[in-house]
Amino acid sequence: MENYQETTGLNEDAAINAAFQELLDIYLESQHRKKVEIITKAFNFARQAHKGVKRHSGEPYIMHPLAVARIVCKEIGLGSTSICAALLHDVVEDTDYTVEDIRNLFGDKIADIVDGLTKIAGGVFGAHASQQAENFKKLLLTMNEDIRVILIKIADRLHNMRTLKFMQTSKQYKIAGETLYIYAPLANRLGLNKIKEELEDLSFRYEHPEQYALIKTRLAEVGGHLQDLFAEFTAPIRERLDQTGIKYEIKARIKSPYSIWCKMQNKKVTLDEVYDILAARIVFEGNGESESEITDCWRIYAIATNIYRPHPERLRDWLSHPKANGYQALQTTLMSKSGRWIELQIRSRRMDDIAEQGFAAHWKYKDGPTQEDEGELEKWLRTIKEILDDPQPDAMDFLDTIKLNLFASEIFIFTPKGEIKTMPQNCTALDFAFSLHTFLGSHCIGAKVNHKLVPLSHKLKSGDQVEILTSKSQRVQPAWINFATTAKAKAKIAGILKREQRSMQQAGEEKLAEFFKNEEIEWNDENIQKLCQLHNVKSPEELFAAIGFKTILLGEADRNEVKVEKPAPGGWKKFIPLPFIGTKGTKEKKQPKENAPKQKIDSKKVLKLTPEALQKNFIIADCCKPIPGDDALGFIDDQDRVVIHKRKCPLADKLKAGFGNRILAVEWETGKALEFPVNLYIQGIDTMGILHQIGDIVSEQLNVYIRKIFIETMDGLFEGHIQLYVHDVEDVNIVIANLQKMEEMKKVVRVEQFEDKP
Questions:
Q1: Fold for the domain defined by 676-751
Q2: What is the pLDDT of residues 445-468, one digit of tens each?
């Protein structure tokens, strides 16, 4: 990680000149053609444009473009065009200079990249949409023309994260959340593994400072032990490799704090239960020929597995079929003499460079597999184009689609003829059908996976052999859009449905008009809007189409919603809506609350979550149910209400990435005045009276109220859930600690819902 140095109080000109000279020195050591003149010109221009402007840290603003250019050159490995664009990336956005000024001085290439890096004022998603999503979409649009745009943007984001401590707290949450949601996965997708890890760790550091500090402290404590374990594990491997004459080095790889924390969250384990912290990596000097290097990888694998027993289910072969980001390696997990599983990665120097620098590293290796790798890049860019071609995107749907399609792990699928196709993880048989051909997708009726018949919604696993079954009479169903996951499948389904929708919309409008006529209901906007609300559709057009497709069947509920009641013959009403009938049309209408004066919120200040404020002004998010002591944030929703989320909540992650300007920093100040529900998952050895013991510890010893408890026993084991009312996280930790003291209790963890089993 770059060491940030403040220049306040120093000779600023000297500091700026020193930083520029360091950049030139790094550039001159690279393998790129030496174009010092144009880099110097760009630096002088940017320095003049940003003259007198300071960053939040107090340093001259030009130090930021210099730092970004340094990352672009040294850590990503790009050349003069990218360095110039990095130096100029904020000029158009922050000064009076235009893209045309850049074009006249530095040419089309640099100008186009700078234009792609310049934030936009709006328009892609509409006036009230996510500005962050708009800017990200512009980045991707430009990236289709030149991938260096996104590489420079990642460098820009990395330096912003390295200096994030100078920003206000709410901005830290916004930037860190956006980084985790978009930029870290994007860096990974481009093969920038080292940068990806640093972005994740920096985001984690600002979002969860206490957990970050705890893990860093623990890693420092066990550092000596891990070194000893690494030396013991690698010694016999080194001895055997030395005999072969292979030039190599073995590196220790310690799991990053963020990776450790993710494992703790996903597996519901404590820090002490994370055992795979240490991994080893063998990097050997290959001859640049792909086949020869692959053979050497397997040769080294044979040596290692002759010494240690490999885990039968943890062999990962990325040699013959690299990941879409170019990553190549052979990975296995071996049982060490100390009884610990240790992952071993085997790769050539070329493979290692590509794993660290991604696509940029391919330019160093013009022979061999370059063409194949470029093909993978082209495939990835085509996927982006398919997503961008969506004519009416929703901002958050767009971010979700990007996340799902571009950042997902890859799996390998086999066709009936044995051809390998790369697909995103969690894809369905329907996605696979559309990836092969639009005709197959639009006429598929099912699939055979490993010769067994499955529905179109069946999720595929790596190694599956898939045969698509079709019928000429089959047509695209509206429900397909719900389980299609890839951009291509969704776009094709939406396009076909849109064409059909036009005719169905007309048919549905005619049906509704006939229904209104028969029921003597006036055709007007008010009545149609009532039916839209009843069926939870956004527009009359959507309502007409649903009626045409027969997904909405007109009946009594519709009649009750819009018909004016008239006395029937004999003084009886034609219909009497009964309150106990659970139709949407007969539900009691909520009376609107009196308009209370809106609370003025200063987004720059930390919001105090006092008992009074929580009861009157704020809403606790139901998706994550934060309690006092949880790392939390506030979000201003569309109704100007402040909703409190956990910072690690998946929905909060999306909100930070899409609507960062609405994020608020919050601080709990509740004391012990309020009680909050919390759920615990418990597991252990079943004994007589176990339920009584648990109740005694929680209710009597700790004086905590139990709302619900459920325990199931099987084969001498028990598992269950407890819902408690607590004041804060401290109460939860005390309860967990005391329950863990029971000899029979093997696991106690907090979960969001009763359904959340670790």
A1: Alpha-Beta Plaits (3.30.70)
A2: 999 999 899 999 999 988 889 999
